[in-house]
Amino acid sequence: MKALCSLKKNKGFTLVELVTVIIVVGILSAGVTKFIQFGTQIFVDTSSRDELLSSARFLIERLNRELRTALPNSARTKEGGGFQCLEYTPITVSTIYIDIPVAPENASDELEVIKFDNNASRYNTGLRVAVYTLTSNDVYVATNKVYDLDDDATKDTRVGDVWTVTLDSAITFAADSPSKRLYFIESAISYCIEGTQMFRYQNYAGYVGDLPNMASPAKKMLMADNIYKVDGEFPFSVAAATQYRNSTVLAKLKFSLNNEDIYFNNEIQVPNVP
User: Fold this and answer.
1) Are residues 99 and 178 in the same domain?
2) 3-state class (DSSP) for residue 39
3) Rounded distance between C-alpha atoms, residue 220 and residue 200, angstroms
4) For the whole model, what pTM was predicted?
5) What SS3 state is found at 86?
6) Across 67-76, 123-132, 263-272, which has the greatest mean pLDDT?
7) Count of domains in the chain?
8) Are residues 108 and 237 in the same domain?
């Protein structure tokens, strides 16, 4: 009896039992692995979707904010070589003028304007003045509607409610603005689609070929990635102002990443009037 009990105590697993256990463990492992992969894929897809949404919302919000401060009728598109750029001229500050030289009056380098915000960070040298710009050519082609301020701001007379602003030379404007609006403007800014990326250009010296001529590459900033054409069309179009509405910029944007597509159709109004 003692020998029989000893044999029972030392009995191990049979080969069939070991194989069965290995098969069961393998099946469980495969199931757990699939479950983890499925959960990981959901996380990756959700992260990709959030990344696309964040990028799209940032770009649209930035465009909305900047174009609302654009000089009237300065927004235009430039296409070529597979690229498209939306160019506009930002307003630094605006005011109402009392008197400006308008042809055929005598030329003058002084403008009388109503007191405005002359914060040093906004009103400074290097700005230009614009009056009654009706087309983009009035802004970007040499015309008698946009002139440079004098670099020496100390020549301005800022006393009382009527200030005298000095230009860098004696000039005459083409016409008066019906609303007597005068805008102080900065250099132009462009948003350009290059491949699947959108860049923002600032402080460039005109265009060379199809893209802005950058003297300082640091002023070229990546704004969004994974952008594609919708139905093969460029994303930006500009509708000029009419008698009944302000000018508008329509942006049709498609963001695509990891088989996730997000479409944005956004109409931006430029509220400023000449």
Assistant:
1) yes
2) helix
3) 6
4) 0.81
5) strand
6) 67-76
7) 2
8) no
